[in-house]
Write a structure and sequence with these properties.
The protein has about 210 residues and is mainly alpha-helical. It is built from 13 helices and no strands. This is Endonuclease-3.
């Protein structure tokens, strides 16, 4: 594959998934934060299922700050690493106290327990704040090297490579790749219907050659 002009090549993907809401079914930014933390190493579908009863009991950060771990566990049992995540959520609620105090920048978000760069980037995107990084989830980790915009399997290194390849105005590409990975660029990819075929390294160097 010749060198790809990624700022140009990524535009169709960004256009396709522009304004696409994250699969977590949150209603407020408070719910978003809680669900992002709970969904780590778990599935969005599972978290969406347990969320209504959880948020009925704890409708905002203030209510959550008054919860005990034992009470909270009742609503999140079955979530992977539920005890640790419950501790993180209570620490966050105790720190923030109220929804109006939720921070919206990468440094302050990642300073909170249970929130890494990926989670912080998701929170910034979904709450409508400017991107400070690129969302690299398990789907992006699969898709980015296939496309050829990044190499390796380390999310932080992949994020850095994509940030270097694209202007800040196109940093939503990470979430766009995630959507592509969920729908088309699956572990067994549906290359025949993928709009990124013209520039995709995997398609041009592996699939076409094999065909």
């Amino acid at each position: 594959m010749p060198n790809v002009n990624w700022p140009e090549a990524i535009k169709p993907l960004l256009k396709k998934y522009k304004n696409e809401k994250h699969p977590l079914d949150y209603k407020t930014n408070y719910q978003l934060i809680v669900m992002v933390i709970l969904s780590a190493q778990d599935s969005d579908k599972h978290i969406n299922k347990i969320a209504p009863t959880l948020f009925e009991a704890y409708p905002d950060m203030t209510a959550l700050s008054k919860a005990t771990l034992k009470d909270l566990q009742h609503f999140i049992t079955g979530v992977r690493n539920s005890e640790k995540k419950g501790q993180w959520l209570l620490q966050i609620a105790d720190t923030i106290k109220a929804d109006k105090n939720i921070p919206y920048n990468l440094d302050e978000l990642t300073a909170l327990p249970g929130i890494g760069r990926k989670s912080a980037n998701v929170i910034l995107r979904e709450s409508g704040h400017p991107a400070e990084g690129i969302i690299v989830d398990l789907h992006t980790v699969r898709v980015a090297p296939r496309l050829g915009i990044a190499t390796g399997a380390d999310p932080k290194k992949i994020e850095k490579q994509i940030m270097d390849a694209l202007p800040k105005s196109e940093w939503d590409a990470g979430m766009a790749m995630s959507f592509l990975g969920r729908e088309i660029c699956r572990p067994t990819p549906k290359c025949e219907v993928c709009l990124m075929r013209p520039v995709c390294q995997y398609y041009n160097e592996v699939i076409k050659q094999a065909g």
